[in-house]
Amino acid sequence: MVGNWKMHGRIKENAALLTEVAAWASALQNDVHVGVCVPCPYLAQSQALLSESVVRWGIQDVSAHTHGAYTGEVAAEMAADFGVTYVIVGHSERRAYHRESPELVAEKARRALDARLTPIVCVGETLEQRELGSPERVIAEQLDAVLDAMTAEQVASIVIAYEPVWAIGTGKSATAEQAQDVHAFVRSKLAKTGAAADVVPVLYGGSVKPENAQELFAQQDIDGGLIGGASLKSKDFLAICQAAQTVLQ
Ligand code: 13P
User: Fold this and answer.
1) Model-level pTM?
2) Which residues line ligand 1 (CB under 6 A)?
3) Average pLDDT of each block of 10 consecutive residues along the chain (249 residues)?
4) Helical segments of the chain, H only
5) Please, what CATH class does the domain formed by 2-25+33-248 belong to?
6) Distance (Å, rounded) from C-alpha 139 to C-alpha 155?
7) Catalytic site residue 183?
8) Given 107, 125, 163, 183, the catalytic residue
């Protein structure tokens, strides 16, 4: 269960949130792993407050380069210096606002792996793309670029997040059935790479709330969640993680 803070947080309020998450996460059972992907300026704070806890921390994007004249970019190795575990790549907000191509997203995922970090590769269709036909075509294009650029061994080290663009921040989640259909498709694509498809966690993201979490996570191919707005409220994030714990029992 990974929180994506997006561009939210300030040093004072983060301290309370991170401390609370660290406290309740240790009581979770059934192999529920908890992470938070914070804005880069708060990496040192996350490291200081989380390193004694079970909660891992991460970043929300990374450069496709290792170093050089790329003003404003952050290299995977720089994040690694702050004890980072997760690197979100290809979030739909970056694909849309920063025109990131599937090939660029694949490069970023590889840079994360090179730095021994775990890329969380986001894929998902817009409402228009869904209404034009099946979302699978769009997902396949986004996913193939990443899977084709990796060995089976590398594929086994990534995380995938299915986030339908129309469900992000809208309060309107995909139904459990809609999500499961796409997750099963993602799993079939993974199986074709020769990697053990079962070892790659496939997360669902898009308006996950305490009220819908259990139904979503009960689906066979939904292994966890990438949580936006609700991860900023300790109580909601905890309730979502508890829902996952219940379903795994
Ligand atoms: P919301 O949970 O706010 O819909 O955001 C989902 C998301 O984009 C997580 O990466």
Assistant:
1) 0.97
2) 4, 91, 163, 168-169, 205-208, 226-230
3) 98 98 93 96 98 98 98 98 98 98 98 98 96 92 96 95 97 96 96 87 98 97 97 98 89
4) 11-25, 43-50, 76-80, 92-97, 102-114, 127-132, 136-148, 152-155, 176-192, 210-217, 234-248
5) alpha beta
6) 16
7) no
8) 163
